[in-house]
Design a protein that fits this description.
Chain lengths: ~425, ~90
């Protein structure tokens, strides 16, 4: 039987783009549990903008597969959470609907691009939220807001109804205040869906229990190298020592492909974005173009006013990287580098069960601190390798640096979500 | 190095409107970012055709799709069951 409730809590952090008025929910494992949905995940009858003016007013005629699963599980969908425009950012400041504030410190950014989801969970507005992670967009805000966020293996969660940014890397992932809640939401959204051509048919997730004793944990030197704040490195090193105290074996290792990972990620994601975002011209959905202008002028005008600066920059750079004469230099080389990252992980996972390091090289940025685009891209260096290789990775809070939250990142073999969730739970509960 | 003319050309072919006032900013940022991407020059291999995922096609089976009404609901001022677009000539 369907039940209803009204959500009337204030949202001082601007975590939501849209809050639903009459919220209904049913029976199931998530019955009555409040859930926020990132605004690039299609919700039938509920406006879905990807944080962009160009999609303002777009009301999807169908649900993403994960939304159907949530509704079947009885979840109470509270609203659509704020995000960097089309997922392109590390602070949630590129949203067309204003930045989200970090509930831990409102002068700080919540991270991005799923910053609204992280802020909604951290401030207690919802118990669970969905984010999406193309280059770290679930793990970064989880780290900055002091919550748990999981990027599942590529193919584990259906992308049907997820509005695409960079298809070959993005996954929908669960976010929650603790590992058990994160695992609960993961257990509902994981599974095969024939409507996503990259979906993989695997058994349902196993229940999580704290397991870390006897696990081999690889710690790549590159995750504590140049650009990583020493205070963050120290907090994460202490967390890894705690894993050792719980019975894990720590194995120092190296990942030489890391020096190419960020460039490979950005070339690939911008190239895919330049193709994916070609569809936005206002004709079929979103903002309306001027019909009497010639179409090149009409489309250029609407894309100029509808897209923000970062989105236009990535479309331009992606188109350039794919253009005749440059494809071999950028896109093809990026794919070769991507294979080197995959090979590095394969080599390491023959020796260790889990790879650990910081989620982010720093703590949360100050709002408005974002300088030039390249400096902002460099903040993604520790999260993009998992997306390039398609492996699962989780960020779990592991203390503070500069009085702000720090995340411990645990990466696992393909489809080993249960293993990294169990390890994260052992860390969180301090038992093995 | 890319020039302002290069950026203006890409903007024109991608229908991404870039104002004259933005050209200098974007060109400077492009050159900084592309300079960083040059690290890929030292990657072995990848000089030929791009490598990456291969397409796997599903069977082309007719299934129920969205109604015409649902498809047109988000478009601007549809007419006689058609989507209207700006003029082509």
């Amino acid at each position: 039987m369907e039940k209803t409730f009204t959500f009337d809590r204030p949202d001082p952090c601007n975590a939501f783009i849209k809050i639903c008025e009459n919220i209904t929910y049913g029976e199931g494992p998530l019955s009555g549990i409040s859930v926020g949905i990132k605004d690039n995940i299609s919700t039938s009858g509920i406006e879905t903008t990807c944080g962009s003016h160009i999609l303002q007013g777009y009301i999807p005629p169908y649900n993403a597969h994960v939304v159907t699963l949530l509704r079947s599980a009885g979840a109470a969908i509270v609203g659509k959470t704020n995000m960097d425009e089309f997922g392109m950012g590390t602070t949630t400041e590129t949203s067309s609907f204003g930045p989200t504030k970090n509930p831990v410190d409102p002068t700080r950014a919540p991270g991005g691009s799923s910053g609204g989801s992280a802020a909604a969970v951290r401030s207690g507005l919802v118990r669970l939220a969905l984010g999406t992670d193309t280059g770290g967009s679930v793990r970064c805000p989880a780290s900055f807001c002091g919550i748990v966020g999981l990027k599942p293996t590529y193919g584990r969660v259906s992308r049907y109804g997820l509005i695409a940014y960079a298809n070959s890397m993005e996954q929908i992932g669960p976010m929650a205040a603790n590992v058990r809640d994160c695992a609960l939401l993961y257990s509902v959204i994981a599974g095969y869906d024939p409507r996503d051509g990259t979906s993989v048919d695997k058994p349902a997730p196993a229940p999580v229990s704290p397991v870390i004793a006897g696990k081999k944990i690889g710690v790549p030197a590159e995750y504590f190298g140049e650009g990583v704040d020493p205070a963050v490195a120290e907090t994460v090193t202490e967390a890894i020592e705690k894993l050792a105290d719980l019975g894990a074996e720590i194995v120092p290792c190296t990942m030489p492909s890391m020096k190419y990972a960020l460039a490979a990620y950005y070339v690939t994601s911008m190239s895919e974005a330049s193709s994916n975002l070609g569809r936005y011209d206002g004709v079929r959905y979103g903002m309306a173009p001027e019909m009497v202008q010639p179409w090149h002028e009409a489309f250029s005008a609407i894309r100029r006013s509808g897209f923000g600066e970062e989105v236009r920059r990535r479309i331009l750079l992606g188109s350039f990287a794919l253009s005749a004469g440059y494809q071999g230099k950028y896109y093809a080389k990026a794919q070769a580098a991507r294979q080197m990252v995959r090979d590095d992980f394969a080599r390491l996972f023959a020796e260790v069960d889990i790879i650990a390091g910081p989620t982010m090289p720093t703590v949360a940025f100050r709002l408005g601190e974002a300088a030039d685009p390249l400096s902002m891209y460099l903040a993604d260096i520790l999260t993009v390798p998992a997306n390039l290789a398609g492996i699962p990775a989780i960020s779990v809070p592991c203390g503070e640096a500069h009085d702000l939250p720090v995340g411990l990142q645990l990466m696992g073999r393909h489809f080993a979500e249960d293993e990294i969730l169990s390890a994260a739970l052992a860390y969180e509960e301090g038992s093995a | 190095m890319v020039s302002e003319e290069d950026v203006a050309h890409i903007a024109a072919i991608t229908d991404v409107g870039v104002d004259a006032s933005e050209l200098k900013l974007f060109t400077g940022q492009f050159n900084a970012i592309l300079e960083y991407f040059d690290i890929l020059d030292s990657v072995e291999g990848g000089n030929g055709e791009p490598v990456g995922p291969t397409n796997i096609f599903r069977e082309d089976v007719v299934v129920q799709s969205l109604s015409q009404e649902d498809v047109l609901r988000n478009s601007t001022d549809p007419e006689d069951g058609f989507i209207r677009a700006p003029r082509v000539i």
